[in-house]
Design goal:
The complex is a heterotrimer of chains A (484), B (478) and C (112).
Chain A (H helix, E strand, L loop, with lengths): L5 H9 L5 H19 L2 E4 L1 H16 L10 E5 L26 H8 L3 E6 L33 H8 L5 E6 L5 H7 L2 E4 L19 E6 L2 H11 L29 E5 L9 H16 L3 E5 L7 H16 L18 H12 L2 H14 L4 H23 L4 E5 L15 H5 L6 H6 L3 E9 L2 E8 L5 H14 L12
Parallel strand pairs in A: 2-3, 7-8, 7-9
Antiparallel strand pairs in A: 1-3, 4-6, 5-6, 5-10, 9-11, 10-11
Helix pairs in contact in A: 2-3, 5-6, 7-15, 9-11, 9-12
Chain B lengths: L2 E12 L38 H13 L3 E2 L2 E2 L1 E5 L9 E5 L5 E9 L5 E13 L3 E3 L6 E5 L6 E7 L6 H17 L12 E11 L9 E6 L2 H20 L7 E6 L4 E4 L12 E2 L6 E2 L2 H8 L6 H12 L3 H7 L3 H13 L4 H19 L10 H12 L5 H14 L3 H8 L7 H14 L1 H8 L5 H12 L6 H11 L3
Parallel strand pairs in B: 12-13
Antiparallel strand pairs in B: 1-10, 1-11, 2-6, 3-16, 4-5, 4-15, 6-7, 7-10, 8-9, 11-12, 13-14
Chain C lengths: L20 H10 L8 H16 L35 H4 L6 E2 L2 E5 L4
Antiparallel strand pairs in C: 1-2
The chains are: A alpha/beta (484), B alpha+beta (478), C mainly alpha (112).
């Protein structure tokens, strides 16, 4: 049952081939069985999930139930879930029970989905390897000595190991696409503003975007259709109707103009990974798409621009964690200053503190213009580059990451080397563009991700391109031996 | 050595919206602690602000009323600092691009001279919560009910040269926001408060002196006292060879002095940057014009109209338009007694103001409705009672709440206008006072007053004074 | 110059130390973070490297370029109707609070 797609499971439930309780119990058992090795979850919600499954079965038996009725999912542990621990992967929030549901959580719940667990993640979504989690690193199902990527590492690893058919995730600089690539699954980061950020614990507000990780583009479309849409609680949410992403999945790709980012095929890209990408592009050509090289001259500056803008916003967003109203509070504070400094010093991990300090510095008097303002101007240049590219091509394609998954501990000592892992993904966040990663083969026995980036609100087109590719290939059906 | 005082004010006016600036929490004053602080006000993880349209409309209304520019494009920024009454660790405010910029307020000084005070900007921001220290040994309690209440911060130019000017300016702004119905102006509850930037410089010099900022002044009296104290302190310092430090000070009303604020001792680096959770506020002409359509007649315009329409002196017109409630009351009275605008003005500013003042009441408390006072003035106008009797009637009305007519009737205060009745009283008085009558007739004109008094006494003060005069002039000479 | 083996060769001097120990202490204070003595040199090193790295931004010619605060162009702030929609949920919200009394959040004595 666990190797079935969400779409297949939904059909099975409707046909009463199996019950939601059976389904949910099956996935819960897999989650529990593999937790000691993968560490993909922070909180498992066995009893509430089974109770919800029972209710879903009653609905389904009565011929009712929403589009996701009875289907199991997990939420990245930065989506607030009412009455449930929501830790953001941090000691700061290891006692935090959210009194409300994030809009994404509420929407998926009302569509009938059942939350089985909260997935592990880099602390406050700051990381590219899932090693910064207070709850320990997540391991890559393809090789448990390796990282799954981050920050949505728990969600990606869980889907790759088929502990769950689909999981929510978030992407600030690549946190959906990079782990999806390293784990060999499908990940979609929608257009900024497409999915509500309300209830998603903020890292960098102008870059964060919720999305989904699933085995297939079709499953991703199914979830995305339900989680997207305008939210009056989020001023940056866009008031535009959500298209039926499923309806356009099979549209032919003949005439699709694909841009190959010159900068992404330059040195630095692992040779075997590049081969897989080129092979994937050949399949698109065979399907009637045309390829053309495009250049985004300012894209090389995306990483430094990102590492000014994101920490700046994070330094402010994380100021609310002060030990007064929620979260970790230091014992026996001498005075207010001591309360603040020790609560925050103890509650946050090393990488989070590094980014808070980076952000504090770039916004401080005398440095604002040189760093923050400059980075926002460079961001404008990068956006303009993308806009120019999309006047020539329909989508951009290239690698999601420079290399396949790396070893746990390999990059923890040098933050910049770690930051550069997001070199291909950050541009889409700076420009607010939708982007996804799909599996396109293996290099050194590890999954390789093909990244597809489109203009604003072109999620439907990206999912279509991904789905048609997945009809032609079987990379998305590959599951590591131990998890079959 | 003479010194010149330079003052600029930052007035914080809480906007009279029903809900907070970025959340749906109510803004009513006096709720139990934290009962009106929702997830957004508490800065809970994951929550986001959504801007209250009426807060924007009210700020625009203020901008239009002071002849300022309303920005077609304004931006909310985060002002970052840690303080327990600031839940998010930043205050959402406006920094580089405020919603209102460049305007002015005209004030009238005691000697009647007019002065124009520039308003640099007025921007929207959220209020902080409150720290409570009393009754909590060793700890401070935080109440976040006030957090997120919309504020418009009105920043003046350093145009004021004395505490008196500062008070006149602050009172004028207070009048204006209440006219506009954008702020209830309640200073006890903190709805209207100000920070004063005070410096001194040698008379005749151009360069401003180093200023001190006195925080959180919540009464006109405190503003005046705090400024005067601070000016004296700074002059003392400078004259004894010291230097004024740029710092934030707090006024202690018990001691009547200012002192440096402990929590602001270190220089703050607020790290302002545009709030990524909020988009730029874009206001088109249609929006601005729709707000302009809601502008009431402003105090200055009303005073000019009162002078021309009712023939009042500029001073009287100024007094009567000092609050919208007072002006409305006056106009309601005049509508009922249209031929006596000056009489109405004298009564509203005289007896009524004195009575309200004595009882510590506001004009809109409903103690004596405009129709009630008009009822009294009508009887003066139609000569039912004299002005003197009217004062007695007014006192009775104030005490009992009954109408002028009922009191006149009940107490029999109706003026005697029947000629024969007055003549009869005169005859009796003349008969009783033959000596005085003889003296009068011998040329002692001053005794005329004596006879007026005697007849008034005999009629219980009710004889119509004009008629009485007329008749006495006829009868006394014989 | 470090070559990270990645497409863009960023110029990073081997041991830049752009920030002093005092600067790190000041930043940590501004951010209200207590750092252990052993953490200081670590952050001094890594933050120096980061600022050296982001200094690459100087290469871009941004004359006459407007800063971009939002990823979607042309959108403006929506205005919410002024309606009080919230009710008192203090008891629920304060379950996460480390220290409360009589409905107040408590902190060590603050001197104003």
């Amino acid at each position: 049952m666990h190797t079935k797609t969400l779409a297949q499971l939904s059909k099975g439930l409707r046909a009463r081939e199996f019950s939601s309780v059976e389904l949910v119990r099956g996935f819960l058992d897999r989650i529990d069985a593999h937790q000691p090795v993968l560490n993909a979850m922070i909180t498992v919600l066995r009893e509430p999930a089974l109770a919800a499954a029972q209710a879903a079965d009653r609905e389904l038996a009565a011929g009712r139930g929403g589009p996701l009725a009875g289907l199991p999912i997990v939420h990245k542990d930065l989506f607030c879930t009412e009455g449930v621990l929501t830790t953001c992967g941090s000691h700061m929030l290891d006692n935090f029970v959210s009194p409300y549901d994030a809009t994404v959580v509420a929407k998926l719940k009302s569509a009938g989905a059942i939350t089985l667990a909260k997935s592990n993640m880099d602390e406050f979504a700051m990381g590219s390897s899932n090693e910064t989690s207070y709850f320990g690193p997540v391991r890559n199902p393809w090789n448990t000595d390796l990282v799954p990527g981050g920050s949505s590492g728990g969600s990606a690893a869980a889907v790759a190991a088929r502990l769950i058919p689909a999981a929510t995730a978030t992407d600030t600089g690549g946190s959906i696409r990079q782990p999806a690539a390293l784990c060999g699954v499908t990940g979609v980061k929608p257009t900024y503003g497409r999915v509500s950020r309300y209830g998603m614990i903020a890292f960098a507000s102008s870059l964060d975007q919720g999305g989904v990780i699933a085995a297939t583009a079709e499953d991703a479309a199914l979830i995305l259709r339900e989680m997207s849409g305008f939210d009056a609680n989020d001023s940056t949410s866009v008031d535009m109707p959500v298209p039926d992403y499923l309806a356009g999945l099979d549209a032919p790709l003949a005439g699709l103009k694909i841009g190959l980012l010159k900068e992404f095929f330059d040195k630095g890209l692992d040779a075997e990974s590049e081969k897989r990408i080129r092979e994937a592009l050949a399949i698109y050509e065979r399907l009637g798409a045309t390829l053309r090289e495009v250049s985004l001259p300012n894209l090389p500056l995306s990483v430094p621009a990102y590492y000014v803008v994101a920490p700046a916003e994070c330094s402010s967003n994380l100021a609310r964690f002060d030990g007064v109203r929620f979260g970790h509070r230091a014992k026996d504070p001498r005075d207010l200053m001591d309360l603040y400094k020790r609560s925050r010093g103890e509650g946050f991990g090393a990488e989070v503190k590094r980014r808070i300090m980076t952000g504090t510095y770039v916004l401080s008097a005398g440095y604002y213009d040189a760093y923050y303002l400059k980075a926002q101007k460079v961001r404008q240049l990068i956006s303009a580059d993308f806009k120019r590219a999309f006047s020539e091509v329909d989508v951009l394609m290239g690698p999601t990451t420079p290399t396949p998954a790396f070893a746990i501990g390999a990059k923890t000592s040098d933050p910049i080397t770690m930051y550069l892992n997001d070199i291909y993904t950050i541009g889409a966040n700076l420009a607010g563009l939708p982007a996804m990663s799909i599996p396109c083969g293996f290099a050194q026995g590890l999954p390789v991700g093909l990244q597809i980036v489109g203009p604003h609100f072109s999620e439907g087109k990206l999912l279509n391109a991904a789905h048609v590719f997945q009809r032609e290939t079987d990379w998305h059906t590959k599951v590591p031996e131990e998890f079959k | 050595m003479t010194w010149e005082t330079v003052i600029g004010l930052e007035i914080h006016a809480q906007l009279a919206t029903r809900s907070k600036i970025f959340s749906g929490s109510p803004t009513a004053y006096g709720a139990p602690p934290n009962a009106q602080a929702n997830l957004v006000d508490l800065g809970y993880p994951g929550v986001l602000p959504v801007l209250n349209g009426d807060a924007v409309r009210m700020a625009v209304k203020f901008g239009l009323a002071i002849g300022a520019r309303v920005a077609p494009h304004s931006v909310f920024a985060r002002k970052n600092y840690f303080y327990p009454d600031l839940p998010k660790g930043y205050q959402i405010s406006q920094y580089e691009l405020p919603i209102v910029a460049g305007g002015s307020i005209d004030i009238v000084l005691d000697d009647g001279t007019k002065k124009r005070v520039g308003v640099t900007r007025a921007h929207l921001e959220e209020d902080a919560g409150k720290s409570l220290h009393e009754g909590l040994p060793g700890v401070t309690g935080i109440d976040l009910n006030r957090a997120g209440t919309p504020l418009v911060e009105i920043v003046s130019e350093p145009d004021m040269r004395s505490a008196k000017e500062a008070i006149a300016y602050m009172k004028k702004v207070h009048t204006l926001v209440r006219y506009l119905e954008i702020c209830d102006g309640n200073m006890q509850e903190g709805s209207f408060r100000c920070d004063a930037n005070v410096s001194v410089r040698r008379q005749g010099t151009e360069k401003f002196g180093t200023r001190a900022e006195i925080k959180n002044l919540n009464s006109f009296r405190f503003v005046e006292k705090a400024i005067n104290y601070e000016v004296a302190r700074q002059i003392d310092l400078l004259e004894s060879g010291g230097k004024v430090h740029q710092e934030t000070r707090l006024y202690d009303p018990d001691k009547g002095e200012t002192r440096p604020m402990r929590s602001k001792e270190e220089a703050n680096d607020y790290r302002y940057f545009p709030d990524p959770d909020l988009l730029p506020v874009e206001l088109d002409d249609k929006f601005v014009e729709s707000v302009r359509g809601t502008l009431p007649e402003l105090p200055d315009q009303k005073a000019v109209r009162f002078s021309s329409e009712y023939g009042l002196s500029p001073y009287d017109a100024g007094v009567l338009t000092a609050s919208r409630e007072l002006a409305d009351y006056y106009e309601a009275v005049t509508r009922d007694v249209p031929k006596e605008p000056k009489l109405a003005a004298n009564w509203v500013m005289g007896e009524l103001a004195a009575a309200l003042n004595k009882d510590g009441l506001e004009i809109d408390a409903g103690k004596l409705p405009a129709s009630g006072l008009a009822g009294l003035l009508k009887r003066i106008a139609d000569q039912t009672i004299s002005g003197k009797i009217a004062k007695e009637v007014f006192e009775a009305m104030w005490a009992s709440g009954t109408s002028a007519d009922a009191i006149i009737e009940e107490k029999g205060l109706k003026q005697i206008t029947d000629t024969s009745a007055i003549e009869k009283a005169i005859d009796e008085v003349m008969a009783k006072n033959p000596g005085q009558l003889a003296d009068f007739r011998a040329g002692k004109d001053k005794l005329f007053g004596f006879f007026v008094g005697q007849v008034m006494k005999a009629t219980g003060g009710k004889a119509n004074p004009a008629q009485l005069n007329e008749l006495l002039k006829k009868k006394l000479p014989g | 110059m470090y070559d990270f083996g990645l497409p863009f060769a960023f110029v990073v001097s081997p041991n830049p130390m752009l920030l002093t120990r005092e600067q790190i202490e000041n930043i940590a204070h501004l951010a209200r973070l207590a750092l252990q003595p052993a953490e200081l040199p670590v952050y001094q090193q890594s933050l120096s490297a980061i600022f050296d790295f982001v200094g690459e931004l100087d290469r871009a010619d941004t004359a006459n370029v407007a800063p971009m605060a939002h990823p979607l162009p042309g959108l403006s702030q929506r205005l919410r109707p002024d309606v009080a929609t919230e009710t008192d949920r203090r008891e629920i919200y304060q379950r996460n609070a480390p220290q409360v009394a009589a409905g107040l959040y408590l902190v060590p004595k603050v001197l104003e």
